[in-house]
Amino acid sequence: MTQKDITFVADFLTEHFNEAPELYNRKGKYFNVERVGQYLKDEDDDLVSPPNTEGNQWFNFLKDSIHLKESPLLFPYYPEKSLHFVKRQMEGVIDQCLQKPADVIGKSVHQAACMSLYKISQSEDSTPQLFKLPFLWNDKTSNLHYVLFTMLENSISKIHILRRHTDTSRSVSNGIVAVEFGNFLNNSINESSDSRCYSCLDAHFYDDETVTVVLKESVQQEGKERVLAQLPLS
User: Are the C-beta atoms of 30 and 24 separated by less than 8 Å?
Assistant: First the structure.
């Protein structure tokens, strides 16, 4: 150790571990604890060395503000408590704030429709992922909800579009349709049906009337072709 290191340690001990007679009647150590560590103790006791807030601009601002001084929107300050105490207080307030919306939203949600998408054997140890890339879109002009998704395995060349009215009491025609890409990009009718088969990598709504899809050539070979296609909903 250098002399500078020894001096630094000595100054630290002198500043923080002097005897403090005024603390003899208080629970805990009889000297000033290190001022950072006291904030991290998970206990409800008051800090041994609370911070000095004199001259703090924020506290002066609150003190001089009639409207903010008693505002319920400001989280109360506990200058005598550790961060663990403040954290528990804040978590309690947040839980209380979220409980009412959760109750209201939970009671307002109900099943509008039920559609069977696929069936699996109950004897299987692990359920395969058959439902992929759901994407939601809300057409505010027509008050319609859309869901785009694909089904893996036996229908990878199809994209499904589910449409529901925002008013659950109303129905719309063609509530769910499937678009199959297959070999629609073949250059001629002479090509075999399996030569240019495409599956959907991703799909999103471009706007209220157009769907953008990314297609991948299904043939197992190097340099698979990728196609970006725009599909009109009509």
Answer: yes
